[in-house]
Predict the 3D structure of the following.
Amino acid sequence: MQRLARLRRSLEDLFPERHLYVRSGGEMKGFVLTPRKQMAAASVVAGAALWMGVSTAAMLVNVFSASAADREIARTQAKYERWIADRQARLNSAVAQLNATSGSNSDVATTIEKRHAALALLLTDMKGAPGAAEALTPAISRALSTGDANPARRVEMVRISQEQLLDAADGYAKSRADRLRLAFRLAGLTPSSYVPKGGSLGGPLIESRDPRALAAVLDVDEQFAQRVQRAATDLSEARALSAAAEKLPLAAPTAAAAQTSRFGVRFDPFTRRPAFHSGLDFAGATMTPIYATGPGVVSFTGVRSGYGNVVEIDHGRGLKTRYAHLAAIAVRPGQAVGVGQRVGGMGSTGRSTGTHLHYEVWVNGRAQNPDRFLKAGSYVLQAG
């Protein structure tokens, strides 16, 4: 009851009694506006405003909904018109081709055989790639054995052999490119930065990146041309990555299999405290041969603090390898070395507790985990 009383007083304060005087014709009339009358008038005004707001909002929603529906209908209609035009164009092309060949099965077989010959010519350069002969020879052999005298049978056999040859080429190129890309990622490198931008892809027959232009050159449909282009692109990228991998330090620095310390934080053998180890250690006998892990130029030979006798090789592209604690050095600064070339003998010079090789890989001035490069090298060998 107290709350109701307070509410009543609040309403009376909001709508106090008002007196309205109207003078007309020399007469004065007075009107009393009680709180109840004022609240009733306010309620009517609020209700009218609410009704007008709801009605306006509903009208706007209907207008916008209708506009969106009209646009969707227009898009759908345009899409179907494009589809119809495309199907009509393909039908006209097929009719024109049939008219040109006069409906002769023999002429159709000859046309398909020419396309098959163009495809075989396009993929001939794949035979030089490692493993390509094993992947392509069966499909090519089946393609060349379609000597049936029946034109319809010849057409069917050549069509099947085309699909088999293209599937074999595409599968081989994609598998080899994917394995090489994975090898580069394992080494912490970006594969795309080692693939040249632009230029021909897979040979002179597919220099154009436009599938329509390639389809015109090979006299095949655009979908078939896209598959050919995809296989050639993968092959081209695989070749570029393979050539780049040959210049990277991916080989093992020594035949010694005993790896005694890994990359990262370890307990220092002298201080017995955790310390960062910037390479891999390989244990072995004194004067065990140490080999260059990749082609490059010797950038330093001599003594470095803590490392003892050191050989450093610059492999280009910001890559450098370091071979430390050597007992003997077999190269000189400025000398070009190849992968697997002997650069020194294992020893225990510098800050060392025993005969071993300390091997580091640096990329753009930062030490990397050499084990990643060794694993990448094994993947490159599998891809080759």
